[in-house]
């Protein structure tokens, strides 16, 4: 049915042009006009005919270009080009280029292979938008003369050699491990510092407690001596001190004997030994009191 309608239309010199499409009208092989979408009369009997049709729709092509960076790394650049024929220059787009895709690809190759070798691999990733802009500007200047508009150019992928990607991943992994090790060492350092500060503080407080304990013992003994001397006339401080120390000595012996966990302890015992122990304890307390004062 469609072929029949087309045949009838041709017989009646009628041509239909679809939306987003233009037709190129020739007369005796020479360009005559650009036909817009709709129905047109093309009298073939006087040499007029439709040479071909040209779409005005936006088209896209991906161009893969392999090149080398400044640091001698081979990379594949994938550029996505969006382009379309210009309606007011449809005759140029139809006649001047037989294969617009091949022409666009050639210009993309030229720009990429001129710009990438000037950059390090890391800079290629950072400056891909600048590279895309350079490609777009070059294509606009070149393709405008052929009746094509470059709508947008994007660098959609940068693919280094597989070995290079593996090496880059290993470098990044090593760098992250180094940072993690530094952070771990710093944390351990802080823990050790805090532990040392805590131990120092504990020792300080322990020494302070021992000093206060000794001072309390000295103060208690002093009060006991003064109270006993006041209540029992004729006794000296030395007599009271000897009595207190002797009492503490026997209390200590009692505690050692009463403890179920105590081991055997051998101590000299006798009046002379007791006097010697009392003298040693007295001298120790007096020295502690003197140093504290």
UniProtKB/TrEMBL annotation:
- Cite the Band domain residue spans from the record: 12-172
Put simply, this protein is called Band 7 domain-containing protein
Q: What does this protein do?
A: Positive regulator of hypersensitive response (HR)-like cell death. May be involved in potassium ion channel regulation.
Keyword Lipoprotein belongs to the record: yes
Looking up Pfam families in the UniProt record yields: Band_7
Q: Which InterPro entries match?
A: Band7/mec-2_domain, Band_7, Band_7/SPFH_dom_sf
Originating species = Triticum aestivum
Is Lipoprotein tagged as a keyword?
yes
List the transmembrane segments. none
Instruction: Keywords in alphabetical order, please.
Output: Lipoprotein, Myristate
């Amino acid at each position: 049915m469609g072929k029949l309608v087309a045949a009838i239309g041709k017989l009646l010199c009628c041509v239909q042009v679809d939306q987003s499409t233009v037709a190129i009208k020739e007369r005796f092989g020479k360009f005559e006009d650009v036909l817009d979408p709709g129905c047109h009369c093309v009298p073939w009997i006087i040499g007029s005919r439709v040479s071909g049709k040209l779409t005005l729709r936006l088209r896209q092509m991906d161009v893969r270009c392999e090149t080398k960076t400044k640091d001698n790394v081979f990379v594949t650049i994938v550029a996505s080009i969006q382009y379309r024929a210009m309606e007011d220059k449809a005759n140029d787009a139809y006649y001047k280029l037989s294969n617009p895709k091949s022409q666009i690809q050639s210009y993309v190759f030229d720009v990429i292979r001129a710009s990438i070798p000037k950059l390090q691999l890391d800079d290629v990733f950072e400056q891909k938008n600048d590279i895309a802009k350079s490609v777009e500007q070059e294509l606009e200047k070149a393709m405008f003369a052929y009746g094509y508009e470059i709508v947008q150019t994007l660098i959609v992928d940068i693919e280094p050699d597989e070995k290079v990607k593996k090496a880059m991943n290993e470098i990044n992994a090593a760098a992250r491990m180094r940072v993690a090790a530094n952070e771990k060492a710093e944390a351990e350092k802080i823990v050790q510092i805090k532990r040392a500060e805590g131990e120092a503080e504990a020792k300080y407080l322990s020494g302070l407690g021992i000093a206060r304990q000794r001072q309390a013992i000295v103060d208690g003994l002093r009060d006991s001596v003064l109270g006993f001397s006041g209540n029992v006339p004729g006794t000296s401080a030395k007599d009271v001190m000897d009595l207190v120390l002797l009492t503490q000595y026997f209390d200590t012996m009692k505690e050692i004997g009463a403890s179920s966990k105590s081991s055997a302890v051998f101590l000299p015992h006798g009046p002379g030994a007791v006097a010697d122990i009392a003298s040693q304890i007295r001298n120790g307390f007096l020295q502690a009191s003197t140093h504290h004062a």
